[in-house]
From TrEMBL:
Localization of this protein: Cell outer membrane
Membrane topology of this protein: Multi-pass membrane protein
Family: Belongs to the TonB-dependent receptor family.
InterPro entries recorded: Beta-barrel_TonB, Beta-barrel_TonB_sf, Plug_dom, Plug_dom_sf, TonB-dep_rcpt-like
Keyword field contains Magnesium: no
Record's keyword annotation contains Signal: yes
Signal sequence interval, chain numbering: 1-27
Keyword annotations from UniProtKB, A to Z: Cell outer membrane, Membrane, Receptor, Signal, TonB box, Transmembrane, Transmembrane beta strand, Transport
Domain annotation TonB-dependent receptor-like beta-barrel: ranges: 448-943
Protein name: Outer membrane receptor protein involved in Fe transport
Residue ranges annotated for the TonB-dependent receptor plug domain, each copy included: 63-176
Species: Roseateles asaccharophilus
Amino acid sequence: MNTSRHKNLIHLAALAACASLALPAQAQTAEAAPPAGDSSGGSNVLSTVVVTGSRISARGFTQPTPTTRMVAADLEKSAEPNLFNAIADLPALQGSTGRTTSTNSTSSGIQGLSSLSLRGLGPIRTLTLIDGQRVIGANVTGVTDVSQFPQLLVKQVDVVTGGASASYGSDAVGGVVNFITDKRFTGFKGHVAGGQTNYGDDKNGQLQAAWGTGFAGGRGHLTASIEYAREKGVPSPRFGGAGANGRTWFKNPAFQVRPIGQTNDGKPQYTFIENAQQFQYSKYGLITNGPLQGTAFGPGGTPYQFQYGSNGVPTGTGAVTGCVTPFCVGGDLTGTVGGGTTLGMNMSRQVAYVRGSFELNDDHEVYASFNYGKVDSLFTPNPGAAKNANLTIQCSNPYLPASIAAACAANNITSFQYGVANAIFPKDIEVNPVRTQLRAVVGANGKFDAFGKGWTYDAYAAHGQNTIDINVENMTLNARYNAAIDAVRGPNNTIICRNAAAAASGCKPLNIIGDNPIAPDAWAYIAPADGPRQYSRQRQSVAAFNINGEPFSLWAGPVAMAFGAEARREQYYVIGDPYGNGVFPETPNTPQYPADPLLNTAIGNNWYAGNYHNAKGAYHVKEAFIEFNLPLFKSTSLGEANLNLAGRQTDYSTSGNVSAWKVGATWKTAMDGLRVRAVTSQDVRAPNLSELFAAPLVVNNTVNYQGTTLTVQQRTIGNVNLRPEIARNTTLGLVLAQPKWAPGFSASIDYFDIKVDDVISSLNAQQEVDLCVAGNQEICAAMDLVSATKYVTLQAFNLASMRNKGFDLEGVYRFNLGGVGLPGSLTLRGLATHTKSFKTNSGVVGTIPSEAAGVNLGNTPKWKGQFSQSWETDTASFTVSQRWISDGVYSNEYIECQASCPVSTVTRPTILNNQMKGAFYWDIGGSYKVNKNLSVYFKVDNLTDVDPVAAPQTGTGYGINPFLYDVLGRQYRVGARMSF
């Protein structure tokens, strides 16, 4: 048996025995009694039964779609500064983005987003709701930011781990996460907390308060909450690979990758290394080619011989003996930049929420709510701005030491290639995304009689707006940097920029030969104060109604029915700064953006990174749905069974009509506590604003077409002809819910199979040309390779497909300890998700389907588990919990071999060691009730301070995978909760 697999099975078996594979069975059904933590009070209008995986709210209805519920008590035990973290830890949640992810990115647009992803399908295929209602997206992909939600009033979170498009519409391919607020909260409650890591950083704190009261004799109700939270993050340790604040685990991991043509020697192509040294630059400058290759520069420009790792010797051609481009092992690592990425963003949250309702009479209630949420993040993607052997320094440069100028003459050269990490920059790049949400809702709910039956309804209209400002500081303009480093002697022996046009427009010479302070005017020239900027505004308007009732009865009981309709409009615009976008103001000679002949005013892209472009777009949606619950039979010998049917018809203004449907059934067998469930559905994800209306951009590129190299215009635009992705979701499960022979015990197992076709994906120019040659007419229409003006249009297309299969295990066992003479009760809980297979077919010519299950460089491990053991009394509690990621591989496409390896191919490369370890984390927490109004608590996450597993890259990289692993280390938190 595979050793890694054996260890995983042992882990799972041990934890299953310990925790009884657990999470509440209350998550699977909607019963008459309200869930724990419900303070619904005395509303006379309607006591809605929330069944997130369905629109049917009839009491006693058992839905077939698996749903995991976390109630307020569970959320409090997690003691996280952001509810996002508590939800993202659930095993079915894979690939969620938070403040420790994407911190090495300037332009991705998802930095600072707390967005949930089910099954590794991405946040764009997970629908996140508040009280069953859509929420305005927090970036152009339409995904929501949980950090903007009112968190103190959340009384439960339902996670539907199955397709729910028939009930809720687009994006519910992986499932739904529904945050349900306490609409009838009465009294006052407050929460204060603080914490930090054991490295003394990421200090955090939060203040929350909520208040609720009735008025007008109980007919009206008002709730409000306000909160502020700050997580100060982990500062960048800058250069050299030293961990931040004493962390010792970062060791510059990377892959050395030999050229495929050299792999006929029986040795593997890929080799994992630590202490990887980029030999194409050094901290303060390195000559990377020619007879002077290997000369580095130190304080004041003093030249010295660079110490290559792997005992490497420069060849004069840019290569280094004993090394594999671009890495040696060891040597001078002072210029390392990969460890300088921020581990956790500095993030603050400000949220305010108010909701008011009024009962017009015993049957009808109107309500209105308003939410304000602002999330401000700050991080450093990398120190300096590394130039990988792509600079040319003239031997006449006056900043060169005399010895180097003489060496140039002796070797009969006039210039050389140069690389530098630019550690002399006075400040590191800082990216500051700020997202501000305003959302207002008005609605009504109640009950009425029609056709001799009682019905309930809920109708609402909402308008939301998210303003996203991304401000980048200390970023350099490439053309100005290149002009500034190309210095010559001018009049009176002064040093000036060689380019006369650049000098006339303000160029200031820059000395990058060694460790030399940058003059303020030179820094201001290459890194103007108005760095990359992106301003975008998204708007969402929604109107919807839902009606529930039991129109007639069958032999086994009443038929429940829900139907409704929704209309929605989504729109956005985004504005990039002139340097990045390329469209300058009508008066370009303004002080803010002076005329500069070096800059590209047509297409922009002038920044080292962070080139944002203008775009806008809008679409609208009209849809209607209907859902039935049909009781099939009810008898003592057979038990009870029901059939759940749902259908939704949707009309998108961009792509036309699409259907979603669901067929499911549950069977409560005659066996004590045993229930069987099954559901299959067709689900959809419509193309988002970014995919439809991406910012246009034109650059030159080359492609190979029928054996000829052509220069073409590469035109990047959105694709308004995109079709919705279509998914087929199937789930089969068994539930054992509190049998008489084991009161307090519940467990479930569910097999899932998700297949997504017409997946929207983007290709490069050569891939599009190859697909056209292979006969794809849709892609052929996006290019012209025969006319005088040849072009290839880069767009997103419905090309790829995905299939994700596996199973979920859940359970809980609660029992009183009085029988063994101890106070209180013990609750054993656990969840585990096994991803058996997750294949993606890109649709690109010459590729093979990739298998993501168990790839620990990604976000879908073979096993992800969460377990807890909680002891509780009336006054105190103590919880021990575990989080587990199974061992995996770097890639399932790699062939592992140490000797006699086959020749590598593009699709099946060879690797020396393809094993990537998983992780096992211990957390502890406890609380104590000081009196009826005050309780205090503590929490320690990652108790044993487990280091993140090295995540090697093929180039300069992050070196860690924050989607799976804890990158912050042991974290301490304490807090107090008050209620009156």
